[in-house]
Write a structure and sequence with these properties.
It contains 6 helices and 7 strands. With 207 residues, it is an alpha+beta fold. Strands 1, 2, 3, 4, 5, 6 and 7 form a 7-stranded antiparallel β-sheet that branches.
């Protein structure tokens, strides 16, 4: 789901650090520097990086530039290989059986822990090349005037990944705009103290 859909869940952030004036001209190059790298043909389990808002296959922004008036728009793409545990278990069992048969022919019976680890690594490497990564895309909207970022996800793991990738790319720290953080920016010290003293309302009996 993204901002172009009829409904979208998103998380808001504010930029804590001052944005250098020279950064605006550098944004296209920084996005390309930390753009998504495809892992279809290599045995990596995960890859993440920036892609064009209009086309998640476009890592050169050939379809459209990231700047749209008073906004910078792009997407975070995440590809993950998911190998079912049952598949790993089966192929590891086959590898161990073949290893036992080979050792039996040599008059041996014991498989060392190091060899078992090596066999598992070999199995995982083969399976990685057989399972294609599953792609996902999360839109990013950067309001230049408001110094605010909207990220099209509310998943805590994706939020952490986005904050990490944003800091790595632009060297700017983000703070999630939770209701409390919004109140902190709007209220005076006396009102904020009263807010800290409020207790949550209990709508149902505790079990």
């Amino acid at each position: 789901m993204g901002f172009a859909n009829s409904a979208c869940s998103f998380t808001r952030f504010r930029i804590l650090d001052p944005v250098p004036n020279e950064l605006w001209a550098q944004i296209p190059d920084k996005l390309k520097q930390f753009a998504f790298r495809d892992i279809d043909d290599i045995p990596e389990m995960q890859s993440q990086g920036w892609v064009c808002y209009e086309d998640m296959l476009d890592t050169e922004w050939a379809a459209a530039p990231p700047q749209k008036g008073a906004y910078i728009v792009f997407s975070l793409r995440l590809d993950i290989r998911r190998i079912p545990a049952g598949v790993v278990k089966k192929h590891l069992a086959v590898a161990l059986r073949d290893e036992k048969n080979r050792m039996h022919e040599q008059g041996k019976t014991f498989i060392s822990r190091e060899r078992k680890k090596e066999l598992k690594e070999q199995v995982m490497l083969r399976l990685r090349m057989r399972f294609l990564p599953i792609p996902s895309e999360f839109n990013v909207l950067w309001s230049i005037d408001r110094n605010e970022i909207w990220f099209a996800s509310t998943q805590s793991k994706m939020i952490d990944l986005f904050i990490e990738e944003f800091l790595k790319t632009f060297e700017l720290k983000l703070e999630q705009l939770t209701p409390y953080n919004l109140a902190d920016a709007m209220l005076d010290e006396e009102s904020l103290t009263r807010l800290d003293q409020l207790e949550a309302t209990q709508f149902a009996p505790l079990s």
